[in-house]
């Protein structure tokens, strides 16, 4: 029976455990470049015991960023900074992963702590946002959307392929495509955002065509020994949007196009959600378990899995294969070590670099003064 600290192998990649640092936009880039901040952030989480470590979503084009402060992989000049990131992650014992994306009609935004409102396209820090149809997202993103032409869709697919080549060159060993959270892939999938009448709109099969073509061009250039995954908005939480049954069909089609792993999340294609499960523990797990069971793909989810006993139980029950942590990874760089202590794992300090582990195992003093409270074994 696997548990949270069991190794996990997919294709030619083995993770030392089932704990993933999920992609999180940090708004610390300039010209899409990774810098010292990203090396610090990602290297410390790898040193803290995470098995798979993602930077933030990296945009495949400049207008695919959330803001001018966000990371990208649309220029060869960005590769050196990304190599620094992958190098420190590997040196600290984790596997470096990358999430490729395009924010579509939710781009051109101010930073959240500055209000997060969409910036007009004529502003120096703004641009014309794009989507499958000329439908504004609404709320804080009110500006007109340019409906992509067929040729512009092909250009975006070519950008995906070019980004995947750069990702391999930079040393990443796991590639995820972001098709959730109201971004471009999510909007093509959702009837709330996609009202096209050509081959990219209408039927479910047409609405997932964008994703399948993107997978095809990436699969053609991404090394076969490395996993290819996607984060799919599998539910819009709105009766007129994506329903989970739609996602089941779409994931089956993606599997046939070379998808190795499904990361399940929400569509978030409208600010007018009809249900809001965000305070419910592990609320995505049931959906993911069904994908694992009925489609036969390994799965991972995030959303409220930061309690070690709960995360471990989902792995032991074989409902999911990986646990993705966002805010818990920000709040505690050593979340895996803390979780191992909480769960009574022998030698939790084996998760940190060898020199750190030696000093921590040979600690002279009372347990509480090491920097963690005494483990609450069995507690949730």
Describe the 3D structure.
With 380 residues, the chain is of the alpha/beta class. It has one domain (8-325): TIM Barrel, CATH 3.20.20. The chain is built from 12 helices and 13 strands. The protein has helices spanning 36-47, 79-91, 150-170, 184-189, 204-207, 209-221, 244-256, 285-294, 308-316, 327-331, 335-342, 354-361, and strands at 8-10, 13-15, 19-21, 52-53, 58-59, 95-101, 130-131, 146-147, 174-179, 228-233, 261-265, 299-301, 322-325. Strand 5, helix 2 (79-91) and strand 6 form a beta-alpha-beta unit. It starts with 7 loop residues before the first strand and ends in a 19-residue tail after the last helix.
CATH homologous superfamily classification: Aldolase class I
What is the overall shape?
Answer: globular
CATH architecture, by name, is Alpha-Beta Barrel
Arithmetic mean pLDDT: 96
Helical/strand content category: alpha/beta
> How far apart, in Å, are the first and last alpha carbons?
21 Å
Topology, pairings included?
Layout: E1 8-10, E2 13-15, E3 19-21, H1 36-47, E4 52-53, E5 58-59, H2 79-91, E6 95-101, E7 130-131, E8 146-147, H3 150-170, E9 174-179, H4 184-189, H5 204-207, H6 209-221, E10 228-233, H7 244-256, E11 261-265, H8 285-294, E12 299-301, H9 308-316, E13 322-325, H10 327-331, H11 335-342, H12 354-361
Parallel strand pairs: 3-4, 3-13, 4-6, 5-6, 6-9, 7-8, 9-10, 10-11, 11-12, 12-13
Antiparallel strand pairs: 1-2
Helix pairs in contact: 1-2, 2-3, 3-6
């Amino acid at each position: 029976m696997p548990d949270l600290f069991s190794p996990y192998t997919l294709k030619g990649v083995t993770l030392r455990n089932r704990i993933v640092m999920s992609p999180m936009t940090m708004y610390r880039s300039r010209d899409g470049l990774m810098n010292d901040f990203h090396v610090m952030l990602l290297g410390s989480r790898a040193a803290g015991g995470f098995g798979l470590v993602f930077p933030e979503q990296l945009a495949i084009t400049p207008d695919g960023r959330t803001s001018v402060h966000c990371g990208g992989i649309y220029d060869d000049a960005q590769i050196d900074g990304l190599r620094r990131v992958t190098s420190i992650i590997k040196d600290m014992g984790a596997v470096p992963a990358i999430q490729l994306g395009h924010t579509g009609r939710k781009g051109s935004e101010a930073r959240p702590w500055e209000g997060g409102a969409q910036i007009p396209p004529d502003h120096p820090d703004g641009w014309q946002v794009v989507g499958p149809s000329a439908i504004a997202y609404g709320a804080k993103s009110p500006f007109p959307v340019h409906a992509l032409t067929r040729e512009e869709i092909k250009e975006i697919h070519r950008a995906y392929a070019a980004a995947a080549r750069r990702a391999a060159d930079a040393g990443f060993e796991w590639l995820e495509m972001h098709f959730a959270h109201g971004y471009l892939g999510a909007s093509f999938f959702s009837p709330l955002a996609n009202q096209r009448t050509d081959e990219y709109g209408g039927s479910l099969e047409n609405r997932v065509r964008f994703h399948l073509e993107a997978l095809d061009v990436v699969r053609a250039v991404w090394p076969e020994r490395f996993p290819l995954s996607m984060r799919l908005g599998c539910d819009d939480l709105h009766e007129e949007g994506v329903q989970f049954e739609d996602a089941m069909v779409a994931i089956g089609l993606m599997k046939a196009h070379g998808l190795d792993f499904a990361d399940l999340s929400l569509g978030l294609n409208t600010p007018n959600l009809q249900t809001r499960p965000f305070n419910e523990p592990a609320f995505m797990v049931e959906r993911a378990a069904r994908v694992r069971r009925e489609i036969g793909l390994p799965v991972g989810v995030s959303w409220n899995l930061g309690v070690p006993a709960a995360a471990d139980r989902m792995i032991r029950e074989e409902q999911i294969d990986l646990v993705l942590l966002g805010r818990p990874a920000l709040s505690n760089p050593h979340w895996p070590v803390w979780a191992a202590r909480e769960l009574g794992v022998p030698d939790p300090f084996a998760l940190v670099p060898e020199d750190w582990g030696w000093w921590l195992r040979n600690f002279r003093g009372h347990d509480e003064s090491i920097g963690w409270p005494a483990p609450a074994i069995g507690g949730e």
